[in-house]
Target: Zinc-dependent alcohol dehydrogenase family protein
Amino acid sequence: MANVVVFDELGGPEVLRLTEVPLPEPGEGEARVRVEAIGLNRAEALFRAGGYYYQPTLPASRLGSEAAGVVEAVGPGVEGFAPGDAVSVLSVGMGMSRHGVYGDRAVVTADTLLPRPEWMDARTGAAIWLSHLTAYGALFEVGRLQPGDHVLVTAASSSVGTAALQLARQIGAVPIAVTRTAAKADRLLRAGAAHVVATDRDDLAERVREITGGEGARVVFDPVGGPGLADLARTVAEDGALIVYGWLDPRPAPLPMTWPLNVHGYGVHHVTRDAGRMRRARAFITAGLRTGALTPVIDRTFDLADIAEAHRYMEADGQVGKIVVTVRH
Ligand SMILES: NC(=O)c1ccc[n+]([C@@H]2O[C@H](COP(=O)([O-])OP(=O)(O)OC[C@H]3O[C@@H](n4cnc5c(N)ncnc54)[C@H](OP(=O)(O)O)[C@@H]3O)[C@@H](O)[C@H]2O)c1
Model:
């Protein structure tokens, strides 16, 4: 038998329930993974509540896109992975209701598996890829961030935000973290920010002008959107890049009129669906992990039995970094 998290209706964390199901067999092109750790992402809270870009198949929808564990069985047609292989799972397509990884076992498509080297523990393997691939593609492939450039990272305490701070540091760029609360300032400095703008204390545009000597940030990396996008555009350097990759503020966002400005709607698929970008990103991130320059910032770890509590914690916005769930076997 397997223990998996399902939900039967849209709603808050309380709709999540742990249930026993017969051990699922992998089909064509699929693998079954014995899950050891799960990385939580805001997208999963949105999916659970019906606010994501596609809707769950109810009842008994599965949930979760990122995990680490060991391959237990493979279906027909799977090449490159075999039972016993340590892996990470990064599943960012539209199949979460079927392939969700919250549980002690998950059946996923084999193209969402990444080999996990023996030096990478399960918590790191579950927490590193979505955050760092998302930030890597935006900052380097789209934003063309260079050493010495300022990069403004909004929602900087998110898992993607903390990854962006580290990646910018790694190439010698200057990361400016934005948070809504000054209470997180010290933790953001420890996570790699060169400067912190707390919007409950500072005027965003004025502070960024000060920090950048009036020039603005070469790249602004934003998952918030909403009406604040117009103000945010005023922090971008002339002809710089405003890269929007989420809608934490679900209200409509105006098209900024501070031209010349390059506005990008960005998704991690920009990296994961392109073999060349994915090869570069994996090489860069793996090299950073090996030297210690990169490491997932893990805010707190929960047990799988406390999955609803972990979602409540995520949605209370107190974290700096990734929330991880571990699985006891
Ligand atoms: N496009 C893609 O491919 C892609 C990939 C991965 C993630 N994402 C998106 O990236 C975002 C972050 O994901 P995550 O899993 O890293 O998040 P997370 O770890 O849950 O972080 C959330 C943080 O964002 C800030 N925040 C929350 N609501 C906000 C609001 N309404 N306005 C401003 N700030 C807000 C809070 O920080 P403060 O309280 O400190 O401000 C909070 O701590 C999500 O929108 C997610 O969907 C997109």
Summary: The domain at 130-270 is CATH 3.40.50.720 (Rossmann fold). The first strand starts at residue 2 and ends at 6. The chain has two domains: 2-128+297-326, 130-270. Residues 41-43, 130, 134, 155, 157-160, 179-181, 184, 223-224, 245-246, 248-249, 266-268, 314, 317, 319 surround NAP (CB under 6 Å).
